[in-house]
Each structure stands twice: as C-alpha cells, then as structure tokens.
Write a structure and sequence with these properties.
- This protein has nine helices and six strands, in the order E-H-E-H-E-H-E-H-H-E-H-H-E-H-H.
- The chain is an alpha/beta fold.
- Strands 3-2-1-4-5-6 form a six-stranded parallel sheet, with helices on both faces.
- Helix 2 runs antiparallel to helix 9.
- The protein is globular and about 50 Å long.
- It starts with a strand and ends in a 7-residue tail after the last helix.
- The structure holds adenosine-5'-triphosphate.
Amino acid sequence: MRPIGIFGGTFDPIHYGHLRTALELQATLDLAVVHFVPCANPPHRAAPMTDGALRLKMVRAAIGEERGFVADDRELVRDGPSYTIDTLASFRAQFATQALCLMVGMDAFLGLPQWHRWRELTTLAHIVVAHRPGWQAPTSGTLGELLRERRTASATELAARPAGLVHIQPVTQLEISSTDLRDSLRSGRDPKFLMPDAVRQIILETEVYAQSL
Ligand code: ATP
C-alpha cells in the first residue's frame, strides 16, 4: 500500500510554496494521497488571523481538481489546541497499517522538540522533512540524535513500515511565506502568481487581509 502524506499548517493563506512542496513529495515518495490539514488552534504560535472555515475554503480552492490532494478539516472540527500527536492518532485510527508521512518544512522540523509529546510522533507516523538543496541536517542535540536513530534515505523503506523513520528530501525552494503575503497585501501589493488564482480571488473578494487593492 502506498503511504499517505499529512501536511499541516495554518495556511493563512495557502501559497505555491506549500503546493509545490506537497507535489514534489507526493511524486518522490509515491504518496497515495496528501491531506492538507489546516490548524485550528496552533499551540506553538499566535492564532491565525483568518478563521478556520475561510482558510479551509482557500485550501479547497488551491487544490481544485488536483488528483491525490485532499482538504482535511479534522483539526477544525476538534476542540482545544491542535496538537499534531492527536491528529496523527486520528489518522492512525482511520488507516490501521498504512505508512503515514507527516510532511514538514525545515523550519518546522527545527522546532519539533517544542511540540506536545513530540517523541511519540514517530510511533504513529514517519516524519518527512522538505529542505532546500545543500542544507545540512542537524548532527548534534536532540534532533541530531533523532536523525542518527531513525533517518532513512529510502522511500521504499518508508512505504514498507507504518511509522518510525525520518526522511529528508530536497525540494525546489520557493521563498514564499504566508507572513510576507499578508504583509504585502496590507501594503496594497497584489499576490498574483504567488498562489493559485482561485485563492487570490477569495482574498480579493473577502478583503480578509486588506481592503480593496
Ligand atoms: P507563516 O508565514 O504564517 O508562518 P508559512 O508560509 O510558513 O506561514 P505555514 O502554514 O505556517 O506557512 O506552514 C505549513 C508548513 O509548510 C510548514 O511545515 C512549513 O515549514 C511549510 N512551508 C511554509 N512555506 C513554505 C515554502 N515556501 N516552501 C516549502 N515549505 C513551506
């Protein structure tokens, strides 16, 4: 069975950095499907400025007809802080034996030791880290230790086990961030070509980040 990708984020808003990373990981790791999971109440950062329903709507618009991409509302319909460990437990309840790949960017991976019950994450899923070419993986500290114990270079190995490994995968880096997009919208700049036009249309229509451009 092909592995399932789980890509969490605030997606406030979703942009081509997210989408391109998901697409490349899906192709390289032969993921059956990638679930985009907008976070409701992120425990490790400020609350998103946009409500969950609208962020989900933008994720749906971004995905469009893309086969194998799914907008997943499981964190939005859950109360309390959106702990990834709970999200992975919910995926594991749904997919008993299939490999689960938690997909994170390099910045998110470096903050992993601050996540709730982070050491248990690998009991439920693999962790796949998307990074810029040439970036050096940590060799010391807790993450260095995690990589020494669990790192694999093999996509085949990921598919063969339900959880427990860490894989680092270079992807094309697009220097786009939601923070920069929100800032530039507030400054009256158009986000054209940094995100799918369907997402841009929602932003312009709702004036969620800035009033008329
Ligand atoms: P913000 O600027 O509000 O922090 P963001 O653009 O970093 O937002 P998030 O929704 O916080 O987006 O990120 C979700 C996931 O996507 C994280 O794992 C993050 O590392 C990854 N990610 C964000 N931007 C990019 C990008 N340009 N390329 C690859 N991965 C990215």
